[in-house]
Write a structure and sequence with these properties.
Layout: H1 10-16, H2 23-43, E1 50-55, H3 61-70, E2 75-80, H4 83-96, E3 101-105, E4 121-126, H5 136-150, E5 157-161, H6 166-174, H7 178-181, E6 189-190, E7 195-197, E8 203-205, H8 209-216, E9 223-229, E10 232-241
Parallel strand pairs: 1-2, 1-4, 2-3, 4-5
Antiparallel strand pairs: 5-10, 6-7, 7-8, 9-10
Helix pairs in contact: 2-3
């Protein structure tokens, strides 16, 4: 599923992620944002222009959360291939009255994506396993875009579910989001392919830590996104960067 295939899922995506009351999901996204914000603070210096670019921004959750943490001295862009996701993001921005944020309906695998932005230092990111729904033939171009946008002074960031522990992590993530994916079949959790799929056409690839490090061409160790489940801490995902910060 990619682009327009998500148009009918915008409001349900909002409910299943940002507004999800399940503690596994709410604690996951809270920890994810905390890690991402801290990484951004490490590189953002006074007197320089920075642009945070969320590639596959959904309904704006990450941009709005980072805005609250980093303020309006940074410019923000949210790009998504789904027009309805972008429109919902803009509606939320209007209510929040946040400045320096632009949401664009744009293909994040477009090789000419650089023309959308100025010459500021860029921090491109893709979170919550969004890379798992990018079509395989376009995946390398997507990663090329990220590292090119980051340049020498910025950095590229990926947040992804824990493919190394797929058998445990996948049910923890998808069962609370069943109203979005609509259906969880007996064979939905494909451990061999490390992917979630269902008979309605929803498909999301997961990745091992080494796979993402290779795609990012990075030797930096990922930061675990840890969540308490039945009083035990589990890494349900990781945040990756393309260099040591």
């Amino acid at each position: 599923m990619y682009g327009k295939a998500w148009d009918d899922m915008a409001s349900e995506y909002d409910n299943c992620v940002e507004k999800n009351q399940d503690k596994v999901i709410s604690n996951y996204i809270s920890e994810e944002i905390k890690i991402i914000a801290n990484l951004c603070k490490k590189i953002i210096k006074p007197g320089k222009k920075y642009t945070i670019i969320d590639l596959g921004s959904g309904t704006g959750r990450v941009i709005f959360s980072l805005y609250k943490s980093l303020g309006d001295s940074v410019s923000y862009y949210g790009l998504d291939a789904s027009e309805s996701m972008v429109q919902l993001s803009k509606a939320k921005q209007s209510e929040l009255n946040f400045k320096n944020i632009s949401f664009l309906n744009h293909d994040v695998t477009d090789s000419k994506i650089d023309s959308l932005f100025d010459d500021s230092i860029k921090i491109p990111m893709c979170v919550y396993n969004t890379i798992g729904v990018i079509p395989v033939p376009k995946r390398q171009q997507f990663f090329d875009n990220m590292t090119r946008l980051a340049g020498k002074e910025g950095f590229a960031l990926i947040s992804a579910f824990n493919g190394d522990d797929f058998a445990f992590a996948a049910p923890q993530i998808y069962n609370p989001m069943k109203s979005m994916v609509k259906r969880i079949d007996e064979d939905s959790f494909d451990e061999k392919k490390i992917a979630f799929r269902n008979s309605l056409g929803y498909y999301s690839q997961w990745f091992t830590r080494n796979q993402i490090k290779k795609l990012l061409n990075s030797n930096a160790e990922p930061i675990p996104i840890e969540v308490s489940i039945n009083n035990k801490i589990h890494a349900l995902g990781h945040v990756f960067v393309d260099r040591d910060l």
